[in-house]
Write a structure and sequence with these properties.
The complex is a heterodimer of chains A (213) and B (187).
Chain A: H1 3-12, H2 21-45, H3 51-54, H4 58-81, H5 91-111, H6 115-123, H7 127-137, H8 139-150, H9 157-176, H10 185-210
Helix pairs in contact in A: 2-8, 2-9, 4-5, 4-9, 4-10, 5-10, 7-9, 7-10, 8-9, 9-10
Chain B: H1 2-22, H2 26-47, H3 52-68, H4 79-104, H5 108-116, H6 121-124, H7 129-134, H8 138-149, H9 154-161, H10 165-186
């Protein structure tokens, strides 16, 4: 086909474009992803028995805020990375801030803890389960977010994949936090951060394959 | 400075056309695509100098990509950055595909091609050809300038210099040999 013919063909198919396509696609993806993961967590793992009393503890909210702020930053990054030429600007700093904060907090806790009690504080009693459950719970939102991006036009595929994985991981972790009984900052600093990063790394590696258009 | 103003004016114009097109104005959209095609062609031709057959194909692919994904353009962002990102993505993607294909199929032609062109640019750039020519006797220098630099034929050179055709051939041959010897001594 000649280029002129293609142009005439395309120009004849001009329909008004819907506004906010990017935001609406991601809202749908996050809604479905969060719904499925919450259902999985509630049915398979179960909400922690002492949830009502935990609501009064500041540590519970810190535990929830850590993944939620990372989710917020990655959501911002992914809506930019899903467009050609989109710049992420401040998102990485916002995402790194709660991680740096929890590391500082954990370090302070460890310093005032007797040496023999430090390792149990870091390892908790569920670290293996945490590292396994969070990446698995992140699968539904990951699939939904990849679907959302595939309808858009990312041009930096590895970064878009990483942001998608990080968003899915942090969202899954915020939901997992309703089940998880761990309340020590050192545990959060190592295993919450680590479990969140796993889907991010997977997304970084798979991005170029999954998101090509 | 002048270029800057020109680029900004083009950005404003194309952006207006695209936004009108996105609102449903087919004429504005057609104009946008036509002007975009010329910019894309220039952009891609420069980057695909050794693959001229691919240029138009890729122009069309970029136009299609722009059309299909025009809903991802954020009017708050510069249009140039958006278009450039799409064109660059499609270009890199095409080159990567090609590299992939070529890595799997070893064609004899490709191997042959390596030796069929010699590139002496690196060596010749350091030498001033004019200076070397000046060291040749006039009888050899003038025919060489006519034939090798101005592209005249043997007959034309013979007529221009008043030499016989055989003499021209001999002079060019000897002159080139002498030049080659000078180059060898230098390097």
């Amino acid at each position: 086909m000649k280029t002129e013919e293609l142009i005439d063909f395309l120009a004849a198919r001009t329909t008004p474009v819907e506004a906010n396509v990017v935001a609406r696609r991601f809202a749908a993806a996050l809604g479905w992803g969060a719904f499925c993961t919450t259902l999985l967590m509630a049915l398979v793992l179960g909400v922690r028995a002492d949830l009502m009393s935990a609501l009064h503890l500041p540590m519970f909210w810190i535990k929830l805020a850590l993944p939620l702020v990372v989710a917020l930053a990655s959501a911002r990054a992914i809506t930019r990375l899903a467009r050609p030429g989109g710049r992420v600007a401040w998102a990485p700093f916002v995402g790194a801030a709660p991680i740096a904060a929890i590391w500082g907090f954990a370090l302070a806790v460890l310093v005032v803890t007797p040496a023999e009690a430090r390792v149990p504080l870091v390892m908790g009693s569920t670290w293996r389960f945490c590292l396994l459950a969070v990446p698995l719970l992140s699968l539904p939102p990951f699939v939904a977010i990849v679907w959302a991006i595939r309808g858009l036009a990312p041009t930096r595929l590895a970064y878009a994949g990483a942001a998608a994985g990080l968003l899915a991981g942090s969202l899954a972790e915020a939901i997992y936090a309703l089940h998880c009984p761990e309340m020590a900052a050192p545990f959060l600093a190592v295993f919450y951060v680590g479990a969140m990063l796993v889907p991010g790394v997977v997304g970084f590696i798979l991005g170029p394959r999954l998101l090509r258009w | 400075m002048h270029r800057d103003v020109e680029v900004r004016a083009r950005e404003t114009r194309l952006r207006g056309l695209l936004l009108a097109g996105m609102a449903g104005d087919a004429d504005a959209y057609g104009t946008f695509l036509k002007e975009l095609a010329t910019h894309l062609r220039a952009f891609l031709r420069k980057r695909l100098a050794n693959l001229p057959d691919e240029v138009e194909d890729l122009v069309q692919e970029c136009l299609l990509a722009v059309h299909n994904h025009r809903d991802t353009y954020d009017p708050a962002e510069p249009l140039t950055a958006w278009l450039h990102a799409i064109a660059k993505y499609k270009l890199v993607d095409r080159l990567r595909q090609r590299a992939h294909r070529e890595a799997r199929s070893d064609s004899l032609d490709d191997a042959y091609e390596l030796f069929s062109f010699g590139d002496a640019d690196a060596a010749s750039a350091r030498m001033d050809v004019a200076k070397l020519l000046a060291r040749l006797p006039e009888r050899q220098r003038v025919p060489i300038v006519h034939m090798k630099l101005e592209g005249l034929s043997v007959v034309e050179t013979a007529r221009a210099t008043g030499m016989s055709e055989v003499a021209v051939k001999v002079a060019v041959h000897r002159g080139l040999k002498a030049l080659a010897a000078m180059v060898k001594v230098r390097s």
